[in-house]
Design brief:
Blueprint: H1 2-20, E1 26-36, E2 39-47, E3 52-65, H2 67-74, E4 80-82, E5 90-112, E6 115-124, E7 127-134, E8 138-139, E9 143-145, E10 149-151, E11 154-155, H3 157-160, E12 163-169, E13 173-182, E14 191-201, E15 205-210, H4 228-237, H5 239-264, E16 269-285
Antiparallel strand pairs: 1-2, 1-16, 2-3, 3-5, 4-5, 5-6, 5-7, 6-13, 7-12, 8-11, 9-10, 12-15, 13-14, 14-16
Length: 286
């Protein structure tokens, strides 16, 4: 599907440029500003004939999403809680970062006075990340150590580190098709306005995850001053707990990754709703 769309977009592009070479017309050059679901940006355009124009430009958008905002989007708590039968549950606050956009080239063909079609190819800039920041310390079972007494080992939340889950497209060079109302670029006037609905065919996405790096014995806080020998003894006693908790964190994060994969698998197209304003800079005879 992707190869067919790229072929059609490229075919449309080169045929339109070739067609423009044989047409007697006052050629035009200008700029076009755009705001869309894929970001904000602009294009340089070259109007080759009365009905054909070529645009090249970029658009970009970056958003930081708090856990409260994510909660409203999915209508459920996005924080991750990992059960700990020997102490307090481990809770991670989940925030998100999303960036999207494209560097693209496209051809527009003015089918009617108030309608055009467009096709092109772009470098897709989509990248998203979920970041889990620990809200609680990781606590372990109390230990009674001869000569020391009862201790309450834990790893402070500041030392646990974050986990992150990234979502990126498997394809970065993607085809685009769209249809618009009004003019692709200015025609009889110096300014044009258009509303365009289109889509990038992005195919599949790749989801990766990294667990917190601080879940290790070196970061355990025993709450008292002990010797290195005593530290090694205690860390040996709780090593099985540490392994179990590490496995639980991995399991929970992998489950989240699987949920994300299932939810995004059907979405092969990235929809774009775009508002453009074109400004004619100058025109010339070829």
């Amino acid at each position: 599907m992707r190869k067919i769309l790229i072929f059609l977009s490229t075919f449309f592009l080169f045929n339109a440029i070739a067609f423009s070479q044989s047409t007697d017309f006052n050629h035009q050059i200008g700029i076009s500003l755009k705001a869309s679901t894929n970001g904000f940006g602009g294009d340089l355009y070259y109007r080759a004939t009365n009905k054909v124009a070529v645009k090249a430009g970029a658009e970009y958008l970056k958003l930081n999403l708090s856990s409260k905002t994510l909660n409203r989007f999915v209508d459920e708590d996005v924080n991750i809680t990992i059960s700990n039968p020997r102490g307090n549950d481990l809770v991670f606050n989940s925030d998100g970062k999303v960036k999207t956009g494209a560097v693209s080239i496209a051809v527009g063909y003015q089918v009617f006075k108030a309608m055009y079609v467009t096709a092109g190819v772009g470098k897709y800039l989509f990248d998203s990340e979920v970041i889990g920041t620990p809200l609680t310390d990781l606590t372990f079972e109390k230990q009674d150590i001869p000569g020391i007494g009862t201790i309450n080992p834990k790893i402070l939340k500041e030392d646990l580190g974050i986990f992150n889950i990234t979502v990126k497209p498997s394809n970065t060079i993607v085809p685009y098709i769209g249809v618009g109302l009004s003019s692709f670029v200015p025609r009889n006037k110096s300014v044009s306005f258009a509303l365009e609905l289109g889509a990038y065919y992005v195919g599949s996405y790749v989801v990766n995850a990294n667990i917190p790096t601080g879940v290790k014995s070196e970061n355990i806080d025993y709450g008292i001053s002990i010797t290195q020998e005593q530290r090694e003894l205690i860390s040996g006693l709780i090593s099985s707990e540490l392994n179990t908790i590490t496995a639980d964190i991995n399991k929970e994060i992998n489950s989240t990754v699987n949920d994300i994969n299932k939810s995004i698998e059907p979405y092969k197209f990235y929809p774009v709703l775009k508002l453009t304003i074109g400004f004619k800079a100058f025109e010339f005879k070829k």
